[in-house]
Structures are given as structure tokens and as C-alpha cells.
């Protein structure tokens, strides 16, 4: 993603379009009827994925926007092939577009889930299958790296008991590694290590540790997905947004994979810390329970949770443990504690999409793969 700077002065439409007047650059964006430029609806606040296809002699850029080409004057240096998300900041005869910042990062994460179908479980299976093998000729560096990655994930996977230290270590690894005076805990981010591993194995050809091409592809997709999540966390939160952070989690014994989200109430951290609440959302794909979306709202000492499962047998199984779960949470000092369970046809991916859009305040928008 590029820095949040304006892309303005859109002067022509799709191929064969007529020049349009330059926008008025003074004052804030006005809520006016959105124009339709070459069949594109530039509604205020709408997001578009754009790709630079040409740099013209006068410095203007030709963008591919929803499969149509348009020319724009950019205040940010760009090069052919750059891709980024744009948000309509002013809807006028000639719209004013700006790079979308955190909303764009969220849209990119949603696009990635929609088009690239990441399958972390397969990536973890590939790591497990290649771990501990004797290195093939010329593959000792890749084998050592694979072993380190698999060991790091295994050591910090969640088991039957909650373990805050493991969560902290995964967050640290996810965001760039941890260095200590005694030893290097995570010398590089998990995403960087996965990309390095894939690059090393691709160079080895027949000496691959992981023979299946699908395994290599799943490792690469897993790294891309984690990087998209990290990008969402690192963008500054706009005042109108709900502050939230998204992290991966691993479960021991290949028992599942998921993401979890921490968010504040809409009144946010600037409100009275004694009374403002926060939320925890878990989007899990479990080996036996299937898709699980657990939402927990905590305000002062009160805790309310709802758990959505994908099947009635899973619902019946989990409901039998709710009294035990309630008791364990009450022993941590929360009161009152309430949990409910239900079944939904929507999987965790759909629940994640919905939650991300609601937290970011994103209106309905088209997520197009401009490279297709």
C-alpha cells in the first residue's frame, strides 16, 4: 500500500471518453449526487481497487478501474503495475479520489479471502509433513528453516488450557519477530520466514522437501494472508472507525486454525476507561466442531457471550459444556456471566467478512480482482 495521499483531477473517462472539467479543490467534500463516469458509480465513500497500466508523457497515470481505463493526475509518484485501493472523497462532476488507508487494507484482506481461498490447514499439514526429514542434497538451509517454523508454531499452539504467553509470542512473531540479549526468539516475522522457505524450495526443483505443489502454494497463500492481516493492524485508526486488531491462532495437534479480533466499543479508548467495554471475536475452523464464531462482550465485570456453530450435533455437544464454561469464567472474577449457542449456515469466513465490514464502517462495495 502507498501512503495516504490524494489522487485527484480525473480528466478522462474510459477509452473514447470526453475530457471533463477539473474538480474544485477548495473546501471539504460535499454530499452531492454521485456522477456516473463511463458507467462507474462514484458514490461518496465507495472503494475501488485500481492498477496503474500506463504513465503518460505529461506525468498523468492511466488506471484500470473496474475493468475500465481512466486517466488521473496523481500527487503521489506511481509506477506501472502499482495496485492500491481508492476511496471517493468528493462526488462531483469530476470525482476526487484518495488512497483508502486502513479501509483499503481491510478491503484487500476481504478480496484475498474471496479470490485466493487461503487454506491454512493445508499449509500446516505441509509443514508437518516436511518437518524432521533428512535434508535432500542442497536443501539443508530450507530444511532447517522449515523445522524452525514448524517448531515455533507447535510450541505456541493452544491446547486444552489457556496460555497467555503463547498468544503474546504468536503476536510478536506475527508482527516482526522478537530479539533478546540471550537469544533470537523470532529473528524475522512468520510471513517473511514462510516466503523465504518457499523461495528456497522453489529453487531446489527435484530436491524439494515438500513434493506436492499444492503444499508449496498453500504456504505462499498463508504468508500472503498473514501479511494482509498485519497490514490492517498497522494502519492508524480513523476517528470514525471502531478500533480493532486481528491476529492468527494455532491449535495443537492439527486441531484447527483461526483468527481472533480485539475491539473497543464504538465510543473507543478515549471514553471513560472504567465504563467502556470491549469485544473479543473468534473465527475458528475446528477439526471436530467445524466452523465456530464466538463473540464475547465485556463491560466492567459483566460478560456476555454468543457462540455460533455450523451443525446441530456440534451445538448439542457444546451446550452440554456451557455450565462448566460459565463456572470457569466466573472463577476469573466476572459476574454476571451469560453464554448462548445457536446454529447458522454462515461459515466463519462469512462471519469474518460481516464483522470486518461493520467494524470498519464499510458500505457495500464491489471487490474486483483487477488482475483477472
What is the N-to-C succession of helices and strands?
Answer: EEEEEEEEHHHHEEHHEEEEEHHEH
Please bin the fraction of helical residues. 25-40%
Oligomeric state of this protein: single chain
What is the residue-averaged pLDDT?
76
Identify low-pLDDT runs.
1-36, 368-372
Overview features:
six-stranded antiparallel β-barrel, about 375 residues, alpha+beta, globular, six-stranded mixed β-sheet, single chain
Describe this structure in words.
The chain is α+β, with helices and mostly antiparallel strands and 372 residues long. Helices cover 33% and strands 27% of the residues. It contains nine helices and 16 strands. The strands form four sheets. It has a six-stranded antiparallel beta barrel with strand order 1-6-5-4-7-8. It has a six-stranded mixed sheet with strand order 11-12-13-14-15-16, sandwiched between helices. Strand 13 and strand 14 form a beta hairpin. Helix 1 packs antiparallel against helix 9, helix 2 crosses helix 3 and helix 5 runs antiparallel to helix 6. The chain is globular, with a radius of gyration of 24 Å. The N terminus and C terminus are likely disordered.
Overview in brief:
This protein is of the alpha+beta class and 372 residues long. Helices cover 33% and strands 27% of the residues.
Q: Which helices and strands occur, and which strands form pairs?
A:
Layout: E1 6-12, E2 36-37, E3 40-41, E4 47-55, E5 61-65, E6 68-74, E7 83-90, E8 96-99, H1 101-116, H2 120-130, H3 140-155, H4 164-174, E9 178-179, E10 184-186, H5 190-204, H6 213-234, E11 244-250, E12 256-264, E13 278-286, E14 290-299, E15 302-309, H7 312-319, H8 322-330, E16 337-343, H9 348-360
Parallel strand pairs: 15-16
Antiparallel strand pairs: 1-6, 1-8, 2-3, 4-5, 4-7, 5-6, 7-8, 9-10, 11-12, 12-13, 13-14, 14-15
Amino acid at each position: 500500500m502507498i501512503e495516504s495521499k490524494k489522487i485527484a483531477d480525473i480528466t478522462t473517462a474510459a477509452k473514447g471518453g470526453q475530457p471533463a472539467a477539473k474538480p474544485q479543490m477548495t473546501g471539504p467534500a460535499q454530499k452531492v449526487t454521485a456522477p456516473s463516469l463511463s458507467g462507474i458509480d462514484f458514490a461518496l465513500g465507495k472503494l475501488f481497487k485500481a492498477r496503474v497500466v500506463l504513465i503518460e508523457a505529461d506525468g498523468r497515470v492511466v488506471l484500470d478501474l473496474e475493468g475500465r481505463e481512466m486517466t488521473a493526475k496523481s500527487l503521489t509518484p506511481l509506477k506501472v503495475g502499482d495496485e492500491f485501493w481508492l476511496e471517493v472523497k468528493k462526488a462531483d462532476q469530476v470525482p476526487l479520489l484518495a488512497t483508502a488507508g486502513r479501509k483499503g487494507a481491510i478491503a484487500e484482506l476481504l478480496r484475498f479471502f474471496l479470490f485466493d481461498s487461503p487454506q491454512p490447514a493445508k499449509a500446516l499439514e505441509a509443514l508437518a509433513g516436511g518437518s524432521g526429514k533428512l535434508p535432500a542434497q542442497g536443501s539443508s538451509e530450507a530444511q532447517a528453516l522449515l523445522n524452525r517454523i514448524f517448531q515455533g508454531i507447535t510450541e505456541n499452539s493452544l491446547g486444552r488450557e489457556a496460555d497467555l504467553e503463547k498468544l503474546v509470542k504468536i503476536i510478536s512473531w506475527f508482527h516482526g519477530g522478537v530479539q533478546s540479549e540471550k537469544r533470537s526468539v523470532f529473528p524475522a516475522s512468520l510471513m517473511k520466514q514462510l516466503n523465504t522457505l518457499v523461495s528456497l524450495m522453489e529453487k531446489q526443483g527435484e530436491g524439494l522437501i515438500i513434493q506436492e505443489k499444492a503444499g508449496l502454494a498453500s504456504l505462499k497463500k498463508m504468508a500472503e494472508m498473514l501479511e494482509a492481516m498485519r497490514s490492517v493492524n498497522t494502519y492508524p485508526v480513523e476517528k470514525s472507525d471502531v478500533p480493532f486488531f486481528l491476529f492468527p491462532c494455532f491449535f495443537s495437534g492439527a486441531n484447527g486454525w483461526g483468527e481472533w479480533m480485539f475491539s473497543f466499543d464504538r465510543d473507543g479508548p478515549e471514553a471513560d476507561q472504567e465504563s467502556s467495554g470491549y469485544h473479543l471475536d473468534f473465527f475458528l475452523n475446528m477439526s471436530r466442531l467445524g466452523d465456530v464464531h464466538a463473540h464475547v462482550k465485556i463491560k466492567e465485570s459483566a460478560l456476555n457471550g454468543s457462540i455460533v456453530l455450523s451443525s446441530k450435533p456440534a451445538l448439542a455437544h457444546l451446550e452440554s459444556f456451557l455450565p462448566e464454561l460459565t463456572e470457569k469464567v466466573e472463577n476469573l472474577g466476572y459476574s454476571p456471566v451469560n453464554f448462548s449457542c445457536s446454529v447458522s449456515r454462515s461459515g466463519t469466513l462469512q462471519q469474518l467478512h460481516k464483522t470486518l465490514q461493520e467494524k470498519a464502517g464499510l458500505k457495500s462495495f464491489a471487490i474486483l480482482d483487477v488482475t483477472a
